[in-house]
Amino acid sequence: MTNVCFDFDGPLIDVTDRYYRAYLESLGGLNINKEQILSKEIFWKLKQKRITDLEIGILSGLNISDAKNSQEARKGLTFKQEYLESDKLFDDVYKTLEYLDSKEINYFIVTLRKKKQLYHAIKQFKLNKYFETENLFGLPDVGIIQNDIQEKHIMLVNAINKLGLDPKDTWLIGDSDTDIHAGRLAKYGKIIAISRGVRSKEQLEILKPDLIIHSLNELQGML
Questions:
Q1: Separation CA 33–CA 52 (nearest Å)
Q2: pLDDT per position as a tens digit, 169-202
Q3: What number is the average pLDDT over the span 54-77?
Q4: pLDDT at position 68, please?
Q5: 191 pairs with which residues across the strands?
Q6: Contact 97, 110 (CB under 8 A)
Q7: Which of 6, 73, 116, 117 has the fewest beta carbons closer than 10 A?
Q8: What single-letter DSSP state applies at residue 38?
Q9: Which are the contacts of 192, defined by CB distance < 8 A and separation ≥ 6?
Q10: CA distance linking residue 196 with residue 92, whole number of Å
Q11: Whether residue 33 has pLDDT greater than 90
């Protein structure tokens, strides 16, 4: 039987409002022409194309020094609990989880969010009905990540081992370079990239996942 592993931000959670809010806040107090502030749509397209925060700052009219300051400020703001409250659940999530339940398919979450943040979001979006604590794998609440891919790889392996599942029978659904590379290292059976997250379809194609989808609804014809 196939198992499904979800990354959280991107596949299940729409983070665009949070990232844009952090972008706007990071410009506060800096010398900038308001007419050069990017719209949310343009900002997110740049993020999806792998344009760095430093480059986005420059495109917003900042000098190099201010762009670096904006970049650093954004790192702290993006995962601040106040900003996490800006997240939204994608419309197809409940329907997809109900479908997986109807097929008796095992599913779980592995995310680089800290555990406290993950548990809070599960309650916030009323996902307790679908995810028991033992099916939620996040980072320790203290500590700094040194290598995203290696950390995610370890978490993916640990999740499979704790749940007693076979990685070859498990599909990983993620939206980033980290997800795709870590999933391969963990030897998951199928790597599915979703293009509504932090990377565009064009960027995901470069990474050559097994499949690219735009919404979770597409899974229903495959499982």
A1: 20
A2: 999 999 999 999 999 999 999 999 999 999 999 9
A3: 93
A4: 94
A5: 172
A6: no
A7: 116
A8: P
A9: 171, 172, 173, 174, 209, 210, 211, 212, 213, 219
A10: 12
A11: no
DSSP character for 168?
G
Per-residue burial over 98-134, b = 16 or more CB atoms within 10 Å of its CB, e = otherwise:
ebbeeeebbbbbbbbbbeebbbebbeebebeebbeee
Positive or negative: CA dihedral 192, 179, 3, 125: negative
Strand 13-14 and strand 88-89: the pairing is antiparallel
Q: Are the beta carbons of 40 and 20 closer than 8 angstroms? A: yes
Q: Which residues contact 70 (CB under 8 A, 6 or more apart)?
A: 26, 27, 30, 53, 57, 60, 62
| CB contact set of 175 (below 8 Å; sequence gap of 6+) | 7, 9, 10, 11, 193, 194, 195, 196, 197, 198, 199, 204
**Residues 206, 30: Cα–Cα separation, whole Å:** 36
Structure tokens at 200: 């565009």
Position 155, amino acid? M
Distance CA 174, CA 197 (A): 8
Lookup: tokens for 208: 């050559």
pTM above 0.85, yes or no: yes
C-alpha pair distances (Å), 32 with each of 21, 25, 61, 62 = 17, 13, 6, 6
